[in-house]
Structures are given as C-alpha cells and as structure tokens.
Amino acid sequence: MGAARHEVPGITWTGMIEVDSGEAYQGPWRMNASDFRYVDDPTVAIDREGVVGVAWADQARKDIFYQAYGPDGNARLHQPVNVSRSPEIFSWLPRIAFGPGGSGGVYVLWQEIVFSGGSHGGEIFFARSTDGGRSFSEPMNLSNTPAGDGKGRLTRRFWNNGSLDLAVDSGGELFAAWTEYEGALWFCRSTDGGASFTEPLHVAGRGAEPARGPALAVGPGDAVSLVWTVGEDPAADIHIAKSRDGGRSFGQPSVVHQSPGHADAPKIAVDDEGTVHLVYAESSEGPLQRYEIRYARSTDGAATFEAARTIADADSREYESVSFPSLSLDGANNVYLVWEIFPDPNRRPRGLGFAVSRDGGRTFTDPSIVPGTSGPGLGVNGSLQGLLMSKLAVNGSGAIAVVNSTFSPNEASRVRLVRGQVAGR
To answer: What is the CATH number of the domain that holds 355?
Structure first.
C-alpha cells in the first residue's frame, strides 16, 4: 500500500498555513535548564463553522501557545496567546478541544516538566478560555504526583512524553486521561466547563504493566470510551474500558483483540449511531520495529470488535514503517486517518499519511501523503519529545484540519496547518 500520491478522490486540499517558525537547535538534556530553540508539538480542533484552533509548544519560550484561524484561513487573534505562562518550566505536547456550539470555550491540556521529587519530571496541566481563546485561565495542575505524569513507558529506558488525552461531550462536560512513568492510568472529569475537576480516578496500569498512550471518545448516552496500550510487553495489545455513567466509574477493562504483534498508539472515536472506531499501530517484529496502521470497529458498544484490517503498511520503495495515527469523524460518519511516515523505522518520520472511509469504516481509500507535510527543505517531523500526538480534526461538514511540525537541524523549525474539504459536504 504505497503513499506516493497527494490526491484522494473527493478530497480537496485548500491551503497550507505556516502557524509559527523558529530556530532548530536542541542542546543536551539538562532538565529545565536545557537549551532548546524550536517550535513543535502542534495539535488541532475545528468547530462546526470551520474555525480552526491550533495549540503548540515554543521550546525557546518553554510555553504552549494558541492561535485560531477562520474559514478564510486568516488568523483570528492579533498574536498567539500564551496558554501555559510558565517560562522557567518546559510545557509540551498539548491537546485541544472546543466547547459545544458557539460557547467560545477553548480547552487545552498539556504536560509540564515539573520535577516533583520522583525519578521523572511531569505533571498534567489544564487551562480554559471562555472568550474564544483571547485569554486563558490560570493553569491548573490535575495530577499532583511525583510519578512522572504524561509519560508513556515502553521500557525502563524508553518512553514517549505526551501520554494524555482530552475530550468534551455535547453538554460541555470535559474528560481528561493520562498515564505516568510509574505505570498508572488516571482519569478525571469536569462538570462546570473546566472551572474544576474531580479527583483523579485510577482506571488501570501498575508498575510491572504500565499503561501507555490513552485516548478518549464520547458517544451517545453519556458513554465514555477509554483505550490504551501497555509497556514492558513485546506482545502488547490494545485495552478498552467503558463508562456508562458519564465518567463517574469504568467497567472492567478488556482486550480489543489479542495478537502476537506489538500494538501501540491507539486512537478512538464514536459516531452518532454508536459505532466505535479504533485505529492503532502494530508491529509483528516487536517494539520499535516496523509498524503498520490497523483499523477495527465495533457496532455493539465495544463489547466486540470486527477483525482488525491493515490500512497502511511498509512500502520499501518509499518508506519502511508507519505509526502514531490520528482519527476523526464527520457528520456523515466518514472516517479520517492520519499517521507518521518513517523512511527508516530507526529514524525520525518525514511527512504524514492520509486515508478516508466514506462508508463508515467498511473500506478505505489508498494511502496518500498530506500536502505540505514533507519536502527536501523541511527536514524531519517534529514532536521531538514524543510522537503521542493528535494532529487531525474534522467537523460535521467535512472540513479537514491537519497540523504538523518539522525540524531541519540548525536551519529552521516550523508548525504548519493544512486544510481540506470533502466534496459535496
């Protein structure tokens, strides 16, 4: 399944916007005294009118920033707004969500590299805007532990930062999930639009079986689905837990489907009919090897899933691995996928792959490359602290927003937004 083409029938890519740019220098790791000078870690949301919100990290300033773009592609804010406002502490790998309707709610969750006394630095922070992103509340620490929150441990010596997720339901309730280096998967919710959150609930994970890469989705009837994978296991599988009471409690976790391969980096979405859509990466060779993109769906509320199918795999003529997918749906239950492309599984990715299903996940288009995400002058994809990201958003009308960062050492770093539209929507 190659990905040489930029064209997908029925998809029109309408333009590329450079959100931010900067130097491209990454010095040695010296905790919060490190000399990092680059822009990175973009994430995206889109509302029903086609307004796009982008949040990203400026490593030189050690903060998370936000900008909004109208359907015409013009910036809505005079200048990017500083969300985290902690210039002495690195802020990384945000997630973003919009409030329902035209509420003006913008919600941002991120990992802040606070050293709280444990073996690894990391806390989970949240801030909200009630005025469309023009200003944000004082950041709130949701985790408050020394366990290295926001880290998704694969082995004792290898982990990804950005192991967290954020979701909002149609009534404006917020849901946050994250993992810690020490292994636990935590969940909390807000019933007042992010003014306050419940105490974190331990859903799964422990020291010998660390949870990793959580993803959230909200479906009909206040059902909240939470998926993740595990570390310290060369045959890791995707796990799922469901809440049927709006996140107050979760049922016993189950395995989506067992295989001898290594399953990683899941994403999940639930459509209006209650179908659960799941995408993840799997390697038959074990962790940190050659992966493919796999998709599965459930029509019975995640009680069972259809057999997983390969959407994109390695093509020796162009690339050797694909991993770290993103997933989104439109109002017609079309399924959109984006993923990282690795020319060499042991090196940084270059460019993003793309595929879409117009029949609710029954079939998908051949993979293509998102325009503006690869090229000889761009260097490698960013997210240098971990590729557990969310780079895709689609609204009910089929307006598509994809973000990516690139890093060309000692030349330039960039954060880009690519917009598209489904024909006839």
So the answer is: 2.120.10.10
